[in-house]
DNA sequence: ATGGTTGATCCTCAA
């Protein structure tokens, strides 16, 4: 089963690029972030025409997440547990069956947090703390589980082309990286780093200042695997070429092949 | 050091 994560930065503006990538990459499950769409205006039909079921958790204007899957999408949970007053659409999780078992796919869009310090950074850290609590519950189920999404965290200096440029950014501040590590150290496996120790692997290049042309990227989209999923990991890659396409998102897709 | 871009919307904000 090929499971992908892709921050598409607006599903309506990105529809041609999304459809082209779906046709080419043929993922079984996709976690989409920043759909910037309400559920009622999400362009379901052209995606369903390619053979995907669609589950959305959108809101007006910003944020918004969705799961696409060739097999049925079951037991859907919308919204990150832990704060019923949180109106931001940043979490959807569901179960998808494979040929040899099922996988729980959690699609997350963590808060950016800039400017830091400030209320947005406080919200980022509070959201990460809620994620930490829910991730522990998921791990305790001892099932194949994937935390797939835009984590808005650069885990290590080698995950940025120019780490010094990010030194005071919410994506790279010590507290942000510590929050990511606390979750990782519960027992999750960073799928990309499990198979690829090399430098220069990025998933995001800013639209500004020629970041793509100069390869000034960062790695902020991550697939974290429960041990039961990590045991079945066969491949993990970034579809970097998608960032160089027509009207691209500022993120590239990342995917893992699991023997499920 | 600064500036640079994109998307959705009610024209500025978020990234």
UniProtKB/TrEMBL annotation:
* Residues at which Mg(2+) binds: 7, 34, 150, 152, 250-251
**Domain Endonuclease/exonuclease/phosphatase span(s) in chain numbering:** 4-251
- Tell me the superkingdom of the source: Bacteria
Check the record and name the InterPro entries matching this protein: AP_endonuc_1, AP_endonuclease_F1_BS, Endo/exonu/phosph_ase_sf, Endo/exonuclease/phosphatase, ExoIII-like
Which keywords does this chain's UniProt record carry?
Hydrolase, Magnesium, Manganese, Metal-binding
Q: How is the cofactor bound?
A: Probably binds two magnesium or manganese ions per subunit.
GO terms (molecular function) for this protein are:
DNA binding; double-stranded DNA 3'-5' DNA exonuclease activity; endonuclease activity; metal ion binding
Cofactor(s) the protein needs: Mg(2+); Mn(2+)
Q: Where is this site: Interaction with DNA substrate?
A: 251
Question: A single Pfam family, by name?
Answer: Exo_endo_phos
Q: Where is this site: Important for catalytic activity?
A: 221
Which GO biological process categories is it annotated with?
Answer: DNA repair
Active site feature: 109, 150, 251
- Where is the site Transition state stabilizer? 152
Q: Which PROSITE patterns match?
A: AP_NUCLEASE_F1_1, AP_NUCLEASE_F1_4
Query: Per the similarity annotation, which family is this?
Result: Belongs to the DNA repair enzymes AP/ExoA family.
What PANTHER family does the record point to? EXODEOXYRIBONUCLEASE III
Could you identify this protein by its name?
Answer: Exodeoxyribonuclease-3
